[in-house]
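Notebook B, p. 112. Complex prediction, attempt 2.
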Amino acid sequence: MREPNAIDFWRGFALITIFINHIPGNVFERYTFSQYGISDAAELFVFLAGWSIGLATRGRDGKPEPRLTTVLRLLSRTVEVYRAQITIMALALAMIAGCALYLDNPLILEWHNAGGFFADPIQTMVGVVVLTHQLGYFNILPLYVVLIAIAPAVVLIGRVSRAALLAMSLTLYGASLVFEWNFPSWPGEGDWFFNPLCWQLLLVLGFLANEATRESERLRHLWRSLMPLGVVIVAVGVVLAVLEWRPDPMLAPEPRLVFTFDKTYLSPARLIHFCGMVLAFQGVYALLAPRLGPLARFLSGLGRNSLAVFSMGSLLSLAGQFVRFQTGGVIIVDVSVVGSGLFALGFTAWFVEWRSRKPRPARKAPDAASPSSA
Amino acid sequence: MPAPPAASAPAEAVDQSLSPECRVPGSKLYTLARLKAVKAALKEKRPVRVLSIGSSSAGLGASASYPVKLENALEQALPDVQVDVEARGLPGEVASGAGERLRSMVAEVEPDLVVWQVGTNDALARVDIEAFGEALEESVKWVKSHEIDIVLIDPVFTESLADDAYYTEMVRTVQDVARREAVPLVHRYAAMRYLSTRGTTEVHMLGRHFRLNDLGLRCMAEHATRAITLSLLQPDAAKLDASKTDGSKADALKADAPKAEPTQAGAPPLDPAQTGTPGSAEKPAPPKQP
């Protein structure tokens, strides 16, 4: 079990933010950082995932592990994430259907985009399994599956040449923005909510940021010295968010997506804002950790077991939405829902680690002298 | 054609141009307003692009047919006109950012007409009604500012929410915004409420509320087409427009009246004025626009 560290801490923070943001209308939503800037927890999550891939594919001494091991490790991770996605989709659909039956209210079936599944299960079932049909608020894991699936290529190319990796990633990103390439949704029209062709850039940036800063003192120094720039960018973001100033997509010059604040295509504005946030807040963990020990431990615990915590968080936020629907969104309800949700997330993290700490001891093979085989 | 209701008539006649299972009195179904962009497209004899935005089942199952049905119904109602309907789902709440996605979608598709089913997601999320109303009005204003027509469809009616004050308030907010912005509105809530009072032999395995939902989805294309074609007949004169707005105000008030009506089967209230006056005198297939 890792010691609390910055990456796990911020990942835990992202998970909590995502959990709160997935209960729309609740009173805590306005206090999440997504409301004060133009990027949000999804960017943080993917960037940190990229960073951890860099960490995970090196041995303890920091040397990169053999190529085959990397490929297999990331492949097994892909399967794990895919499994989680299918499981939570099934549970979420069951929760929605169950709630609709219990309340005798067919409107509930529309929740989270699920109306499509109940209207036409035949095509949609296939779509769910191949990840082209996504429930609302359950869009991050399909993106994550695709990103981890291409991660071996990212790591191996990066080992050969970081510049080449960055160039390829930027080219793909740029082309997708200009030509509006995206993975299609099926059934139904439209595309994926998170465009993997664009979001892969964040993964690569996270990976490269880890690679670059681990080796070069000069780059680490540069990283630190850019903090004031980061603060400026964050301040601009706050102003834009508070004034609700957004570029009008109809008036933006071609290529349109380069100039709007588009989440699906990870518009440059959002990317720059996020980089500003990373630069501005880079030192915060080091400042906070000694002063807020229990909080740092709690968040790091969540971050260490991010897949399980994210899965539980998605389902809990759905349950929270049902509770708010029935009771009407009063403050006391919001507080209890979010509070019990956070408690449950903490428990999930602890439970997952307990399970891995208590493996069943290997059975010994019965030998000829034992009484049972007599 | 519906005859003008006499003072002693117990019920208002239903709109005969709809299929039997979907027949609803005109005043319960639509508020009309001009559709300039669509008229311009008809004048220029180019295909009419329609962007249909639904909450989630847009494009699948019972409403899978909705975009196709809408396209066919519009092409039938407007002979020699090609209509292209593009259907998209808009997950999320208007009050928290769906407006942004709407703008991106509109910028991508560049339609002449947007048909927007609005309010369901926000109602489910119990968002603050004022915030919703403001965000909705902003989005409608934005669409109009780009010379694109917009037709709103208010939220679904279901029995368990019939007496829910919040939900009814939400429906009223959509009606208010439609009236203030002078855009056509399909009164899905009132129409489905009316349909729920009619007896039927149709049975759904999960009960009559699910049946009504299915029916509502099936009828939506017809109802929307009716509102659109009647709106296209609206004369351009500003004076007549003002009287339509008054008519729609009366209609919005009447749409509230069903709230007080008993939910068991009974005659719908008498409506002295019908919105969409052309409806009482027009022929089944409106003539092609010059």
